[in-house]
Design a protein that fits this description.
- The structure is a single chain.
- By secondary structure, the chain is α/β, with parallel strands linked by helices.
- It has two domains: 88 residues, Rossmann fold (3-Layer(aba) Sandwich); 118 residues, Rossmann fold.
- Helices cover 39% and strands 13% of the residues.
- The chain is built from eleven helices and six strands.
- The chain has a four-stranded parallel beta sheet with strand order 4-3-5-6, with helices on both faces.
- β1, α2 and β2 form a beta-alpha-beta unit.
- The longest helix has 11 residues.
- The radius of gyration is 20 Å and the shape is elongated.
Length: 223
């Protein structure tokens, strides 16, 4: 059980519910609503059973382990706003097996809102690679190869695009030309995107693209 921490953890353990912070160990995800926090998004990649936080409070109140199926997380407003179905995303996550972004190389500016570590964890939970970009970064393969890489590359080939997660603050914008040049120098295609790109992909558990994800100097000046 993730996303629930309070003074009743001992009682929860006695009922068989362990509160964990590691998304890999999360079998059930409890939340009051659909949120785009790193914990929620990371856990979703592992296709947990998703329940309303009332499930935990009711287990505590009745001091017994209840059926999670009686407490599904229903948040139609958020699903409509974010343009996805939570149940369909969970089903896709089961099929994706944490490989949705396998073959994707993502760089991230250091001063990104929300923090580099948060976006690195989201990318890696979905099988991609994420590197901090301060103006220089190696474009060579950074992940050690394993015996399963050849099979993975057949189903998830390394993409020609390299993505930069960024905001539009002046200190971030000034890094964009350097990023483009470095990516072009290794024969790949630079894509400079805002955080909605990765969040929408991770939440829906499918590759999505909207023109509004991509940012450039013209859009910043016109904005």
């Amino acid at each position: 059980m993730a996303l629930f921490t309070n003074v009743y953890q001992r009682q929860l353990r006695e009922l068989g519910i362990a509160v964990v912070s590691d998304a890999k160990k999360c079998t059930h995800l409890a939340a009051p609503s659909i949120v785009r926090t790193p914990k929620f998004v990371n856990a979703l990649a592992y296709a947990p059973v998703i329940v309303n936080v009332d499930y935990v409070t009711q287990c505590l109140a009745k001091n017994q382990l209840l059926d999670p199926a009686d407490f599904p997380l229903v948040d139609e407003a958020a699903e409509k706003k974010l343009d996805f179905s939570l149940e369909e995303a969970r089903a896709r996550a089961r099929d994706n097996k944490n490989k949705l972004l396998r073959g994707y190389r993502v760089c991230c500016v250091e001063t990104i809102r929300g923090g580099f570590d948060a976006f690195k964890s989201i990318v890696e939970a979905n099988g991609g690679e994420c590197t901090l970009f301060r103006g220089r970064v190696s474009m060579n393969e950074s992940r050690p190869r394993t015996d399963s890489d050849e099979e993975d590359e057949e189903n998830h080939p390394v993409r020609k695009e390299v993505y930069l997660l960024t905001g539009v603050a002046p200190e971030q914008v000034k890094l964009w030309p350097r990023f483009r040049q470095m990516v072009h120098d290794v024969g790949k295609v630079p894509r400079i995107v805002n955080v909605n790109w990765i969040l929408d992909i991770a939440m829906s558990q499918e590759i999505r693209w909207k023109d509004e994800y991509e940012v450039n100097e013209q859009s910043v000046n016109n904005g």
